[in-house]
Amino acid sequence: MKTNSLDFDAQALREKILDLAMRGKLVPQDPNDEPASVLLEKIKAEKAELIKEKKIKKTKPLPPITDDEKPFAIPDSWEWFRLGDILSLENGAIRRGPFGSSLKKAYFVPKSKNTYKVYEQGNAIHKSIDYGNYYISQQKFKELSSFAIRPKDIIISGAGTIGKTYILPTNAPEGVINQALIRVRLNNNLISNEYFLLAFQQKIGLLNKKAKGTAIKNMFSISHMKNDLIWALPPLSEQSRIAAKIAQLFALLRKVETSTQQYAKLQTLLKSKVLDLAMRGKLVKQDPTDEPASVLLEKIKAEKQELIKEKKIKKTKPLPPITDDEKPFDIPDSWEWVRLGDLVAPVEYAMADGPFGSNLKKADYTDQPEVRIVQLSNIGENGWKDNNVKYTTFEHLKLIQRSEVFPGNIVIAKMMPAGRAILIPNKDKKYVLSSDAVKFIPNDLLNKQFLLDAINSNAYRNQVNQKLQGTTRPRTSLKKLKNFILPTPPLEEQERITREISKLLALALM
């Protein structure tokens, strides 16, 4: 049986494995292991001796760990600790890179025999390591010696993608870290770098809460990381067993992930091909007894005109006629090309976008499950994605009523993947759009599932992609989405097409 990529969440499994590991439930304990308490006593004794010999400075002790701080039970051979307790006994064992004024581009020099590397965020934290192109002189390196890194040091990204970690390899060139990086130097007689990286990954969510900034997240607090958070310390031998077991499990996950990704690509290609055939009238046969689409469209127009006459809806400016140059391919005689905006239901705000950012700010959010905010991240390739849950209040919804959306409505993404469409599920009390989405309520005389498939087909999406605006964040607009055209078959054929699409795609998921 094939693995359904929609049901496989590799990241959730990784997080579960890490959680079990940090609770002492991933590998068995060995009674012959030297307990972590002995390790901690050794480091205390070593530190006291170095202070006595005046080789290091005496520092204020970290506060004892209270029972209230301990989030869960750990094995008897383990101990809770603060990161400051297990750092290298050198001064400055954890350090953020120098401020920009201490390491400006003006200090950079061409590479030569006597130059030193400047490690940067983005080129010092990946397995295929790229050390970048910036160097400093020997004199400048001496001035910045407290920011120097050496093999086995841990480097942590502190800006952008916060928390990416890397152990500097033995063949890495000498150098210093820049402002966006954090260097951590551990006491390796107490804790292995490999185990610490895994423990750090499990803590990254808590650390990110201390990060600042919106568009680009910036450095979490080193003080918080070192002094406030508590970490679980197993015996040294068990640390190695945990790291080895996680490496084995993560390798298996990567294999499954690769196969599911390849399977997902095949599903996407198949779906694209099926929809393409459907939109060209080549998926099911035409039936000469079907009422032509032209008659269906006249009914929609007549219904709208009657409601305008009765003053139940407002008259709107008609969309421009469709030219032959706009039509990307030929369709059967019983079909018609029509603009999406001409297929809406005759109700107010049948096609509307979300409020501008100033009308739906973080200050308007609530922790209560009141009005679910439909975000770009909810518009998945295969339907609604129930993640990144955010709510606003019932009271605030009154101010942005035009953006309210209801279960069964179609919602289209304005940003990449621009043009992707889903149906709103029936799971939350109420829904409202974010600024990145557009709702589309189709006329009841049409088959809603056919329209959803048509919007997700290349026939429509190609038009969207050809007229995107912006470079960093390409987007479309409500006006453009209204004006893009769809091939529209007779209603009976719409229903036959949706049944055939559903059958073919169901076979692909078996």
Automatic annotation (TrEMBL):
InterPro entries noted in UniProt:
Restrct_endonuc_typeI_TRD (IPR000055), Restrct_endonuc_typeI_TRD_sf (IPR044946), Type-I_RE_S_subunit (IPR051212)
What Gene3D superfamilies does the database record attribute to this sequence?
Answer: DNA methylase specificity domains (3.90.220.20)
Q: Where is the Type I restriction modification DNA specificity domain?
A: 75-251, 332-506
What would you give as a GO molecular function for this chain, any one? DNA binding
The protein's UniProt keywords, in alphabetical order, are: DNA-binding, Endonuclease, Hydrolase, Nuclease, Restriction system
Acetylation found in the keyword field: no
One Pfam family in the UniProt entry: Methylase_S
What's one GO BP annotation on this UniProt entry? DNA restriction-modification system
Subunit note: The methyltransferase is composed of M and S polypeptides.
Q: Which PANTHER family match?
A: TYPE I RESTRICTION ENZYME ECOKI SPECIFICITY SUBUNIT (PTHR43140:SF1), TYPE-1 RESTRICTION ENZYME ECOKI SPECIFICITY PROTEIN (PTHR43140)
Regarding protein family, the annotation reads: Belongs to the type-I restriction system S methylase family.
Protein name as catalogued: Restriction endonuclease subunit S
Q: Which organism is it from?
A: Lactobacillus helveticus (Lactobacillus suntoryeus)
Q: What is the lineage of its organism?
A: Bacteria, Bacillati, Bacillota, Bacilli, Lactobacillales
